[in-house]
């Protein structure tokens, strides 16, 4: 047996390095193949989300003036019903009060009281109908305004998601450059994470980065939107 021949059963440093190098190459190949697919999926999702938000924003812009006009008209109707002396809402009572002395007049012709009562009934019914019509209009207008506000909050969340996806796309593309060998020096993990964190624009991004909460926010996240 030669002087440089290792004993039987003993592995050389070169023998151990070969599987490690092969494993590292396989990992690099895996990352290089998967990361572009992830990036394309993220890009497609972001593009579709932005298109949907853009279309909804256009519809929202068209709806908003009509909702505002309906709110003003509803308020004007409510004000008109309660203005004047008497107001429309109190018109029937005012008529009854004004006509009461006439009903006590002995000179009132036969059938006059019935005719006056019929007129008062018509006035009472008309005033009641107008008041009833105004209430649902006001309520419906308020409900529509609330739904529009919810839509606006939804648009804000969509925009926030789009920003987050765009940042992930950029960071994954950077990782792909490292895996493909287009970057001379591989950055340290902590330096990489610090650079990524420095690009966050929203509080929940920083919280997710630190593992402070589950994705999607905690209780009350659907009631308040904080972007910066």
Name the average pLDDT. 75
Summarize the main sheet: none
What integer value in Å does the Rg equal? Answer: 38 Å
- Alpha carbon gap, first and last residue: 73 Å
Proportion in helices: over 70%
What are the low-pLDDT stretches, counting only 5+ consecutive residues below 50? 215-228
Please work out how many helical segments DSSP would assign. Answer: 5
- One letter per element, helices H and strands E, the order comes to HHHHH
Portion in strands: under 5%
Number of strands: 0
What structural category arises from helix and sheet content?
Answer: mainly alpha
Region (Disordered): 203-228
Structure description:
With 228 residues, the protein is mostly helical. The chain has a domain at 27-179. The chain contains five helices and no strands. It has helices at residues 13-82, 91-103, 112-179, 189-197, 203-210. α1 (13-82) runs antiparallel to α3 (112-179) and α2 (91-103) runs antiparallel to α3. The protein is rod-shaped and about 125 Å long. The protein starts with 12 loop residues before the first helix and ends in an 18-residue tail after the last helix. Mean pLDDT is 75; it is low at 215-228.
């Amino acid at each position: 047996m030669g002087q440089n021949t290792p004993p039987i059963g003993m592995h050389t440093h070169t023998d151990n390095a070969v599987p490690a190098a092969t494993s590292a190459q396989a990992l690099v190949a895996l990352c290089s193949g998967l990361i572009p697919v992830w990036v394309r999926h993220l890009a497609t999702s972001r593009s579709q989300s932005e298109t949907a938000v853009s279309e909804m924003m256009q519809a929202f812009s068209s709806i908003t003036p009509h909702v505002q006009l309906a709110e003003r008209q509803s308020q004007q109707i409510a004000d008109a019903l309660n203005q004047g002396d008497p107001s429309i809402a109190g018109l029937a009572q005012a008529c009854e009060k004004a006509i009461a002395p006439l009903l006590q007049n002995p000179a009132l012709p036969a059938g006059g009281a019935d005719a006056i009562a019929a007129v008062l009934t018509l006035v009472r019914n008309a005033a009641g109908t107008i008041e009833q019509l105004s209430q649902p209009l006001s309520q419906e207008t308020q409900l529509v305004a609330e739904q529009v506000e919810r839509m606006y909050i939804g648009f804000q969340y969509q925009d926030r998601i789009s920003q987050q996806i765009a940042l992930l796309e950029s960071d994954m593309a950077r990782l792909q450059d490292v895996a493909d060998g287009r970057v001379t020096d591989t950055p340290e993990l902590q330096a990489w994470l610090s650079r990524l964190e420095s690009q966050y624009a929203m509080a929940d991004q920083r919280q997710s980065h630190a593992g402070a909460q589950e994705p999607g926010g905690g209780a009350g996240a659907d009631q308040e939107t904080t972007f910066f």
